[in-house]
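Researcher: Checking consistency across runs. Here is LRRCT domain-containing protein again:
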Amino acid sequence: MSRCGTDDARPKSIFSWSSERSPSDKMLAENFASKPKDLAICFWHFSRAGRAAIGQFDGMFTHCREFKEENQACEEAEMHKLELECKERGDAVLHLPSNEEANCPRGCRCERVSVTCRDVGFKNPDVFQQLHQLAFPHLDTIIMTGNSFGDMREGLFPEGDEHTSVTLLNLTSNGITTIAKETFQQTPNVEFLYLNDNNILSTADVNPFGPLKKLRNLYMKKALGRRSPKSKSELLSVLFSADHTNEFIDLTLIDLSENDIGIIHPETFCKIKGLRRLELQDNKLTEFVVPKNCLGSLEALILSGNQIKTIPVTLWQSLPSLTSLDISKNPLQCDCQLEPFIKIAATENFDFLNQEKTACDSPPSLKGKPIFDIKNDLCKNPTSTFGTILLLLLIGGAVLFVYRHYRKRRPQPVNYYFGYAGLNNSECDDENVRPEFV
């Protein structure tokens, strides 16, 4: 046997157990000691490269060339001989699973920087308890979709663990009903958070996203559960009640589309200091009002597919940084009230998205016409003038009808005749009623 296969070529510490070694190291040592010497040396060198073993090796192989690259201490001739021996066995030796593979939840895919569990069907969030910080020290991305987590108000990971390297957390389609600060306390550096397609009905804390001080993009499409318009607006106010501990300076995008939102309190997003893009498409909003100096950094506002009939000019005064606006697929009423908005739309300072779908819904003469193609002054619209005249004529005719009807019903005054002069009228032509004189 070559010197590479002797015990002297292996570190003595690999066989000993100490408090500094993890359980996987202990199992590694036990498996290492039970292997034939020529395979055990490959086993040790893979472990030295950072791989751990837990005893599940079936179907996991790697080529001997990896072993050759790892064992630079062996001479070329001896390595060539050992390589030939490996090839005779099938050109493969046992491949040890990584820490991430060894601790990967069943049905998931785990790599050095990511854990992906799609449509596995977990019934509660206990699966996060398997993602130990020591086993996943480089974890950057967590994708958990298609499960039934329900209430997630408690911490997700083992107590004391903190995954500070995680920057993307995707919790789409998990039936989440409740969130809290504890939900995100152990992933403080998340930049991209996906909560789409959930059923969030409540939050255990005000400002549950507070621990995410580096949050950049928040996606909550179809995330809010069935609630009344008033209670849903109150839930939004609680979700985004930022405080002095986190003013979300880095949070530039919020997507709240397709949530059947009917009302948004004017101050809801005022504490999100860094917000630049707000997506509220396909809801049931009839207006969008914000106070002055509220969303000073907002550059893009998406309001398509709502129930908005007019855009007040005060919106532009409240949003000084606004450059992009989408109000397509709204039932716009093209009248004098919309005239100031159309004048602003004609300037070159604003980018209006989906212009071909930004059309009038009324009056009938303008229905379907894009507002950007309207050249006439809506305040002097002939159709509107004709309608006004017609309305006045109808009102005048109604007044005349009522007056004539009133005159017919009014009692006629009684005629009184004095002296004989009055007896010569036509009403007294009858001989029988003429006076007789003696």
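Researcher: Does this match what you'd expect to see?
Model: One thing to look at in this run: The first strand starts at residue 61 and ends at 62.
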